[in-house]
Amino acid sequence: MRFTQASARYGIPKGTLYDNILGKSKRMAVLEEAGLTPVEEAGVLEFCCDVSVSPYNRRTKKSLKAVLNFVEKLRRTRDPEFMFTGLSGFRWWWAFCKKHSIVSLYYENNGIPNLNITL
């Protein structure tokens, strides 16, 4: 049975099923792979959301590509070879947004959300 089917049948949110079956820790473990220090993580949050100007602002209009480039640049100061590959950047951004309750408001000019994922 798929998560969507089980959710509808038993009245349990899909996210809850996903977390309990596959383990939330696995989805959030990707944050550790980037290896950001607390200071670097705060820098990413500032870059994305300007929290120093608006501390409760957890919205960003930055593209995924811009955020990942920023993170890679930060990390390369300590590890010149660091880079996100495949979907690892997207997964990291998803977990980072979950951890910090960030809502991404980045849209292309035509109003369609754009993830800017290059595989």
The helix-strand sequence is: HHHHEHHE
Would you count the extended β strands for me?
A: 2
Biggest beta sheet attributes? 2 strands, parallel
Helix/strand/pairing class, anyone? Answer: mainly alpha
Query: Could you name the ranges where pLDDT drops below 50 across 5 or more consecutive residues?
Result: 115-119
Strand order of the largest sheet: 1-2
Protein name: HTH psq-type domain-containing protein
Briefly characterize the structure.
With 119 residues, the protein is mainly alpha-helical. The chain is 55% helix and 3% strand. It contains six helices and two strands, in the order ααααβααβ.
Structural notes for this entry:
- The protein has 119 residues and is mainly alpha-helical.
- Helices cover 55% and strands 3% of the residues.
- The protein is built from six helices and two strands.
- The protein has a two-stranded parallel ribbon.
- Helix 4 runs antiparallel to helix 5.
- The two termini are 29 Å apart.
- The C terminus is likely disordered.
Considering the chains and any ligands shown, give keywords for the structure.
mainly alpha, globular, disordered C terminus, 119 residues, HTH psq-type domain-containing protein
